[in-house]
Amino acid sequence: MKGFLGRILFVALACGVLIGGTALTAAAQVALTADDCVKCHAQQPAEIDSNGAAHKTDIDCQACHEGHRPSVANNIPACSMCHEGTSHYEVPECMACHNPHQPLDVALSGEIKAVCETCHTGPGEQMVASTSMHAELACNFCHADTHGNIPDCVACHSPHSETMVQNDCAACHQAHKPLELMYGEDTGSALCASCHDTAYSQLAASKTKHNQVACVTCHIDQHKTVPKCSDCHGEPHAAAMHAKFPNCGDCHSTAHNLNNWPGQ
Ligand code: HEC
Ligand code: HEC
Ligand code: HEC
Ligand code: HEC
Ligand code: HEC
Ligand code: HEC
Ligand code: HEC
Ligand code: HEC
Ligand code: HEC
Ligand code: HEC
Ligand code: HEC
Ligand code: HEC
Description:
Residues 1-26 have low confidence and may be disordered. The strands form 2 sheets. A two-stranded antiparallel sheet has the order 1-2. A two-stranded antiparallel ribbon has the order 3-4. It has 16 helices and 4 strands. It folds into 3 domains: 4-80, no CATH class; 108-169, no CATH class; 189-258, no CATH class. Strand 1 (18-19) and strand 2 form a beta hairpin. It starts with a helix and ends in a 6-residue tail after the last strand. By secondary structure, the chain is mainly α. The chain is rod-shaped. The structure holds heme C (12 copies). One heme C (HEC) binds at residues 53-55, 58-59, 63-64, 77, 79, 81-83, 94-95, 98, 100, 103-104.
């Protein structure tokens, strides 16, 4: 409560004393306007003023606080007075996250998942379809502190090599299904090299045309896909020869280390 005027008003409100010979009746209390509140309450008007969002622009104090002591004992509204009809409006403890006077300054504490899923169904569905240890974490374990916050993978994990950076992670991983290892055709071979050094160095040293082919051109789309030579080459030699030697590797060695015959 601030100031002398406020104190007088309060005394008038609380005790119904005479002002200028007139009793401050219930009727006069009804005449309180939203402009009066700040005379006695500093904090809530200041919060609404700076951060009230729609609670500032669409409604005023009295839309929520109907009446006042002493004539009305409890003037605290239920959120459901105005918010109804979606699953989000049915979760418990609205004010664990929302301060009604700055409703969009959402506080995220504890472990939150179900409430996030009242609006975002995708991430949870992905985690069920492709399970991983991420699925066991609360949403705000990663999306911490402020709503909408997106963390870097490298805040929690080391990259697979010294040259790999945060922007590379998405080439192979998706946050909500990190074990579904898919990649696009523009994924550089150096990224694979962080774990497959032998394959990478053999190919780099090869003097055959496979040297010019990216890892993902052969191992397409999904990690651990292994192609057959004939997927790309068919059976280029005489049929009798292929019948006799069904393994291309009998003559050509491996894809990463093709025999480097003269003339090839
Ligand atoms: C004359 C001073 C004064 C004015 C003006 C005033 N209030 Fe209050 N208000 C008080 C005091 C004092 C209390 C605390 C009463 C208590 O704790 O017993 C209070 C309590 C409240 C509460 C807490 C709920 C409750 O019943 O304890 C709310 C909400 C409230 N006021 C809203 C408003 C709103 C909205 C306005 C403007 C429309 C307003 N007040 C105007 C003095 C005032
Ligand atoms: C959207 C509805 C809404 C609006 C608009 C609103 N309030 Fe509130 N107010 C609440 C709710 C809900 C509470 C109870 C908060 C709690 O329990 O933490 C509350 C609590 C209060 C309290 C009591 C604080 C306490 O700690 O006991 C005061 C005083 C108050 N409001 C004043 C105001 C004033 C002044 C305005 C306008 C500037 C205003 N409110 C606008 C919903 C609203
Ligand atoms: C007197 C009616 C009323 C009450 C009570 C009320 N609200 Fe609201 N609230 C509104 C209106 C009107 C809007 C703007 C339209 C909408 O989003 O529905 C709004 C919007 C909001 C927003 C979005 C703000 C924005 O700018 O987008 C949040 C968050 C919110 N309310 C939370 C709450 C919570 C939490 C409570 C209970 C503590 C509550 N409201 C109580 C009327 C109310
Ligand atoms: C666990 C935290 C949490 C709880 C509990 C919670 N909310 Fe929310 N609410 C949020 C978040 C996060 C947003 C999104 C805010 C944004 O868009 O910036 C939100 C948005 C809103 C909005 C604005 C968007 C919309 O869909 O209209 C309203 C209104 C709202 N909440 C009302 C409520 C009500 C009413 C309750 C209680 C029945 C409640 N909230 C409980 C976290 C919560
Ligand atoms: C009431 C609905 C609502 C709730 C509850 C809610 N959100 Fe949101 N969220 C939104 C909206 C609306 C956006 C803005 C979407 C946009 O900008 O495209 C958003 C944006 C986000 C974004 C950023 C998306 C981007 O592309 O930048 C993340 C991350 C997010 N929410 C996570 C969460 C988490 C985690 C929770 C639970 C703690 C949560 N949300 C609760 C409605 C909600
Ligand atoms: C292990 C950390 C982690 C967990 C747990 C997590 N997220 Fe995310 N989330 C991220 C990262 C990182 C991104 C950014 C992904 C990107 O850029 O592709 C993201 C993106 C998002 C986005 C925006 C893009 C989109 O996919 O719509 C939303 C919304 C979101 N998360 C909501 C959630 C919800 C809801 C949960 C809980 C069910 C959750 N997240 C759990 C790390 C996480
Ligand atoms: C806030 C911390 C956090 C963030 C951000 C995060 N993770 Fe995780 N991640 C974990 C935790 C905790 C585990 C569980 C295993 C552990 O302790 O390492 C995990 C596990 C994993 C696993 C193994 C899953 C399993 O089931 O074996 C992969 C893969 C992974 N994270 C990739 C990523 C990627 C990619 C990103 C960014 C899109 C990311 N993580 C963002 C915390 C995080
Ligand atoms: C070129 C593809 C690729 C890129 C880019 C990539 N990863 Fe991975 N990541 C994998 C593969 C494949 C595995 C599975 C390895 C296994 O099965 O042991 C894996 C496993 C993981 C794991 C779980 C196993 C472990 O090592 O702890 C984490 C965590 C992880 N990656 C984080 C990241 C982060 C963070 C980034 C970005 C800096 C990233 N990854 C970039 C392919 C990639
Ligand atoms: C985080 C380390 C990691 C990264 C990055 C990685 N891999 Fe792997 N890869 C592994 C592991 C671990 C195995 C399993 C090795 C085993 O079973 O002996 C594997 C196996 C493979 C296999 C063999 C499957 C089989 O059946 O023998 C292929 C092919 C493969 N990876 C291709 C790639 C390609 C292409 C890339 C780049 C897009 C890549 N890997 C990136 C760790 C990784
Ligand atoms: C994803 C397609 C693909 C797969 C799978 C593949 N290759 Fe190739 N191969 C190529 C391309 C592209 C070239 C270069 C063709 C050109 O430039 O004329 C090539 C060239 C060759 C050459 C000629 C090399 C030279 O330097 O002239 C031989 C031999 C060869 N491949 C054998 C194989 C064998 C054996 C396998 C299986 C172990 C295999 N290839 C798997 C795409 C593939
Ligand atoms: C021209 C097609 C081609 C290219 C390019 C290629 N591979 Fe392979 N890779 C194969 C084939 C075919 C096999 C099966 C074994 C064989 O016949 O050579 C294989 C096998 C593998 C294996 C499992 C067996 C082993 O040798 O470890 C891994 C891991 C692998 N490749 C990773 C890679 C990586 C990483 C790159 C890029 C540096 C790469 N490959 C480039 C075709 C290719
Ligand atoms: C009995 C040994 C032998 C077998 C088995 C064999 N090749 Fe060859 N291949 C050769 C020789 C020798 C050459 C180089 C001579 C030439 O240019 O004709 C060659 C050349 C090639 C070339 C490059 C020249 C061209 O035709 O473009 C490709 C591609 C090739 N082989 C693919 C394959 C594939 C795929 C298989 C398995 C389906 C296979 N080879 C099986 C011996 C073999």
